[in-house]
Amino acid sequence: MSQERLIYVPLGGAGEIGMNMYAYGWGVPGKERFILVDVGVTFPSMNGTPGVDLIVADPGWIADQADRLDGIFITHAHEDHIGGLGMIFDRLSAPIYCRRFTGMVARAKMADWNRDEDQITVLPPYPDMTDVGPFKVGILPVSHSIPEAGGLVIDTPKGRIVHTGDLKLDPSPIVGDPFNPAMLREVAKPGVKALVCDSTNVFSPLPGRSESELREPIRDLIATAEGLAVATTFASNIARLKTLAQAGVEAGRSVCVLGRSMQRMLRFARDAELLGDFPPVVDLEEAQDIPRQNLMLLVTGSQGERRAASAHLANGKYLGFTMKEGDMFLFSSKTIPGNEIEVGRIINAFAAQGVRVVDDSSGLYHVSGHANRPDLEQVHDLLAPEVLIPMHGEYRHLLEHANLGKAKGIPSLVVPNGAIADLTSKHPQIVEHVDAGRVYLDGSELIGAYDGIVLNRIRMATRGMVAASVILEDDALLGVWVETIGLPDPHKGREDLADLVEREMEDEIDLIPAKTLRRDDDVIERLERRIAHICRDLIGKKPVVRVLLNRLEAESG
Amino acid sequence: MSQERLIYVPLGGAGEIGMNMYAYGWGVPGKERFILVDVGVTFPSMNGTPGVDLIVADPGWIADQADRLDGIFITHAHEDHIGGLGMIFDRLSAPIYCRRFTGMVARAKMADWNRDEDQITVLPPYPDMTDVGPFKVGILPVSHSIPEAGGLVIDTPKGRIVHTGDLKLDPSPIVGDPFNPAMLREVAKPGVKALVCDSTNVFSPLPGRSESELREPIRDLIATAEGLAVATTFASNIARLKTLAQAGVEAGRSVCVLGRSMQRMLRFARDAELLGDFPPVVDLEEAQDIPRQNLMLLVTGSQGERRAASAHLANGKYLGFTMKEGDMFLFSSKTIPGNEIEVGRIINAFAAQGVRVVDDSSGLYHVSGHANRPDLEQVHDLLAPEVLIPMHGEYRHLLEHANLGKAKGIPSLVVPNGAIADLTSKHPQIVEHVDAGRVYLDGSELIGAYDGIVLNRIRMATRGMVAASVILEDDALLGVWVETIGLPDPHKGREDLADLVEREMEDEIDLIPAKTLRRDDDVIERLERRIAHICRDLIGKKPVVRVLLNRLEAESG
Fold first, then answer.
1. What is the pLDDT of residue B311?
2. Fewer C-beta within 10 Å: chain B N or C terminus?
3. Residues of chain A positioned with their CB less than 8 A from the CB of B416
4. Which positions in chain A touch B347 (Cβ < 8 Å)?
5. How far is B419 from chain A (nearest CA, A)?
6. Cβ-defined contact of A361 to B461 (cutoff 8 Å)
């Protein structure tokens, strides 16, 4: 019989920034007991996942062992850590642990999917520790761009693991927990076997800046606004919302929050008693009666999301508000790679309306929620782990972070999604690989990334589509009907593509030997190939083709 | 009868960075004679233009007056200035004027579309001027990131216009024409009525850097490469290719150029006698026998293009070359907004292979080809125009550039795509708007952006597709056949979506009154709506639906 082992298995998040899901296990191989950390999503795009609603790490491997899953920890309430919780909870069915604010968002995620919200247990922060299966786990308060973010202190039979979650070292984060080096030193005291650490900003060479540094620049900026002042940031960045609202109030403006997700996050923060001296806000109806030079709007849509308030405002009107010359629009946010075009579209629309658009290019109006390179080194130093395992990054981030650790003499191991790292011994290594793909939420269905469904949609998007119905009665052709969708007609000649294809199909069917004509699959294959070729010749595109073959019995007519 | 007027009409390029096409006209309104400047393309993306091959500004307005188009000037050989020349030349049919290197690329563009290459006339540069219709035009040598870029000096009956094309102020551009302030002063002597000026880098606050500044950093970098050294840049940036090749040779490496477009550009540059002391390169066969530490590859694909050499190398193997630990890959280029994900994919793939990836984030290995904000001010100062008209930019760039001019007392006018600016008087203004959209090359067809063809493809990509054939004989249903494409099956129950839809269709047809059943359009509309609803209920998606209704005559059976 094999010996017990301690394993770390990233299922998502170690190969992309998004869809975080990490498993820790202890036990005899194949019989380990587990905790899972985070159940996050990543977002689809036309380029690769058109029509998909959300993407979550494939939970298959851990779901197959769900009877040995003792708990799910959610480090914080960002979508890339919590967004998949309701969606795949039925495949995990284990108690959920998190901090209070995170718990509120988690309950909403569970409710969205009709899951049992009472599965959620709110834990007090470290130094409090909770027994979960073979582990003792404490949630370590860390600062990030959302309230009550947590790292995890995981005491295992082989020693202590620290899983940072997303963190920055902010001594004055406005809302939430300041960086507390003394607590990290305290955590490090028994020795840290492994540090599993955020890698997002490993390429940022300067020390991270504090949320509190934004207060003056934002205040000074808003004071210069002439007409309506509007600002956007991430809905869950309560500290930033507070800074923005305070700047508005100090400039003599009433502040109104537009956008459902922002209002919801503020409500959670209020319920969790995190708002403190957040200035009073006015509701929509009041706001509509306030002169624009006396009003500031906080709106959703910092990433150019088409359905968010910023896009609606850019396109014309939103809830009675229209932007005009002399107004100001502030992006107190960074554009996430991939969203440049959408954000640019909004900036251009505002520019065309004479709106003064201010973004974070000056570095004055946004700070990141992640530890920069020197901050990461500080975390390494404080925790002095036996091994560093970078997480929360694309491969290049993980590798760079590992190199950073190695340069300082810390053994560092890149463990990508799907690798099982055995941490039992002094020399952790990757020992196995498991299936770690992606699952798509598509309408109401969960589908695999390799099911071919989305691939077919991409094919239709790039090639267009021909649907053809053929009616045969024994060897006789009774009818052909063709529809083209998403295809141009040929510019030469006066006939539609569909008509041309119909005629060619009739000719082709005439050429099919009677014997072949009785075999459905052969007829369909031959016709589909012929149609694709006709289209290529006529319009230079080889479409997706479906022939619907209908065979009538002779006696049925 | 109206008076003669001088007009400027941007058809593309004044609202995006790409697909440049500008018209200048002189004459009685509606009877002006024209010159056209540039016939560029912009590139499609899955997000908005899936399956499209190229995008060009809609030439409709100028094509309708092509009998009064006296000449087409191509400022330089970048795709966003020359890429649409062959594609839409048959709708313009006017003599083409450009410099020598540009002419070589232009001939290739014409040949690709079987157009008459002899329409191209290579002109000597300014101070040489050529009579074209009512204008005298000279091509002003400017520095840019491609050889022999040109601005235009256009002498009109109402004074001199300077159209900058794309330019930077590079005193030592390695290849091509250095910045020549004396020549600009000379151009300005008779007075400049209007300066139509590149706006690309108006948001870059520092003076632009010279191509020659890259030589040492790139040389020093390549000298540190251990295994294979590979560098990518834009294929047409001959100066950069020279700098890279020289760095390779100085590091004791043989240099080999991979990628068709790069080889073609080098051939043109050689034919135009622009290569000067470009180091000798080895061909592919030789390169394959050279030890990797003695070899440097120059490859295409700086924007992560899927079919270019860099992507192939990242994915494994290309022409016998494989990247390994210890190799270096240099992006001597900037990532154009929108390409971040594709470029990131390549960087991650190389990182996973242990390849050292170097990009331009240090600012050491790439310089822009466009004038930065202070450089633009220098151009304004040198030419002292009566009016500044920003071009070559998104709306925000045009606006910022106009504000920059106004701040210095230069009247500045934003003229977006489709606006007709009347420059006749001392106070230019926008007097009309014409249709200025986009035309897509889709396979071998040119289609309008609003034809609905691409919209249908986007719909299929996001919603999936159901094709259904129904066979009716008078009121009797003879058969139903359904195919779903790009749609998941419902997870509840054991039946396929197609089977479920077929059954529901049969039920639905039973419910259709006999009278309605005789009207094809009504039957189709009712069934298509029903199918969409069934799918929404079953899988949460409302697909694109096409019902192919086949009606058999009773006597045909």
1. 96
2. N
3. 352
4. 396
5. 14
6. no
Contacts 24+ apart (CB under 8 A), A483-486: A483/B467, A483/B546, A483/B548, A484/A543, A485/A460, A485/B456, A485/B457, A485/B460, A485/B465, A485/B544, A485/B546, A486/A460, A486/A461, A486/A543, A486/B51, A486/B453, A486/B454, A486/B456, A486/B457, A486/B460
Instruction: Provide the chain A residues 485-504 that lie in CB contact (below 8 A) with chain B.
Output: 485-491
Q: Which of A134, A129, A155 is nearest to A33 (CA)?
A: A134
- Which of B471, B473, B491 to mutate to probe the A interface, most A CBs <10 Å? B471
Do the Cβ atoms of B66 and B31 come closer than 8 Å?
no
* Dihedral angle sign, alpha carbons of residues B406, B409, B415, B419: positive
Q: How much is the pLDDT for A557?
A: 40
Give which of B550, B553, B555 to mutate to test A binding, by max A Cβ within 10 Å.
B550
Helices B520-539, B497-511: axis angle to 10 degrees equals 140
Q: Which of B454, B486, B550 sits opposite A471 (nearest CB)?
A: B550
pLDDT of A273 above 50:
yes
- Check if B548 contacts A (Cβ < 8 Å): yes
Contact B222, B390 (CB under 8 A): no
> How much is the pTM?
0.93
Which segments of B206-263 are extended strands (E)? 229-232, 254-258
pLDDT of residue A474: 80
B398-433 burial: b if 16+ Cβ within 10 Å, else e: bbbbbebbeeeebbbbbbbbbbbbbbbeeebeeeee
Average pLDDT over residues B360-389: 96
The predicted pLDDT at position A32 comes to 98
**C-alpha dist (Å) from residue B438 to A181, A375, B64, B415, B467:** 58, 48, 16, 17, 31
Beta-bridge mates of residue B98: B122
Of A395, A446, A539, the CB nearest to B352: A395
Closest CA to B221 of B362, B322, B123, B84: B362
| Phi, then psi, of B131 in degrees rounded to 5 | -75, 125
Tokens representing residue B304 in the block: 């992560």
* Contact check, Cβ <8 Å, B457/A458: no
Surface of A (435-464) touching B: CB under 8 A? 442-447, 451, 453-454, 456-458, 460-464
